[in-house]
Amino acid sequence: MRFATPLVSGRLIRRYMRFLCDVELDDGRVVKAHCPNPGSMMGLKDEGLRVWLEGNDDPRKKLDWGWRIVEADGACVGIDTGAANGIVAEGLAAGLTGLDGYDTIRPEVKYRDKSRVDFLLSGADRRDCYLEVKSVTLLRQSGLAEFPDSVTARGAKHLGDLAAMVAEGHRAVLLFLIQRGDCDRVAVAADIDPTYAAAFDAARAAGVEVLCFDCDVSPSGIALRRRIAFG
Residue 109 and residue 128: Cα distance in Å, rounded? Predict the structure, then answer.
C-alpha cells in the first residue's frame, strides 16, 4: 500500500482526545492532524517522537493532515488501523498470506449479530473462510508484538463470532497484522485485557486459526512482509 501523496516529517507535540495530535513539522510549522488510531498507542505517543503526516486536500475533511507513521524503538510503525485491511487485501491478491485457492474475496460482509467480517473468501468445493484482521503496534519486550493495547470488548465479540462460524462448518481465521518490522513473534496482552485473552483461548479451542504477519513500513508505503510466530 503506497501513500497517495508524499509524507511530511515532524516531531510529535501531543496526542489528545484519541483522534487528534499536534505536530511540529520540520519546517517549523505547528499543525493539527487526525490520529486514525482509537487504541492507547502505548509507546507511540510520547512527545518528541519522529512522525510522518500525509497531506489532505479533500474539502469534506476537517483537518489538512493525517498521521500515518511514527518512529519508535528504532523502527517505523504504521499507526493507521484503517489501513490494515488494505494492506491485507494487497497481500491476499498477491498470494502472500497462504489463503490461496478461493475464487472470490469480498470485504466487509455482514454476518452474525451486528457484525461485519473483514473478508469473506469463497470458492467452489471449499468451505467459506471468514477472515478477521487486527492491526498490532504494541511492543513492550524486544521482538514481541502484543494485542490489544487497550480493552476491546468489540474484539472479544469478533472472536465469538468467528468461533460460531467454525461451529457452523465454515473456516475462520484471525490475522494479526503487525505494522512494524522489528518483531519475530506475537502474543495476546492478557494483563491489559483478560476478557479478550479468555475469548481468544476459547476461539482457538473452537477451531479458529491464527496467522501473524509483519510489515515493511517506510514513508513511501506499508506492505505485508513475512509470516511470524504466535506465542
Answer: 12
Type of residue at 122: S
Phi, psi at 206, each rounded to 5°: -80, -10
| Per-residue CA distances from 166 to 66, 105, 143, 171, 205 (Å) | 38, 18, 31, 6, 11
Classify residue 92 as exposed, middle or buried by CB count within 10 Å of its CB (0-12, 13-18, 19+): buried
Plot region of 97 (φ>0 → left; ψ -120 to 50 → alpha; else → beta): alpha
Q: What pLDDT is stored for residue 90 in this prediction?
A: 97
Ranges of the chain with pLDDT below 50: none
By DSSP bridging, strand 30-34 and strand 20-25 are antiparallel
> Cα–Cα distance between 71 and 142 in angstroms, integer?
15
Which residues, at least 6 apart from 65, have a Cβ–Cβ distance to it below 8 Å?
Answer: 8, 23, 31, 32, 33, 34, 53, 54, 55, 56
Whether the predicted model's global pTM rises above the 0.70 cut: yes
Q: What is the pLDDT of residues 64-113, one digit of tens each?
A: 999 999 999 999 999 999 999 999 999 999 999 999 999 999 999 999 98
Residues 167 and 179: beta-carbon distance below 8 Å = no
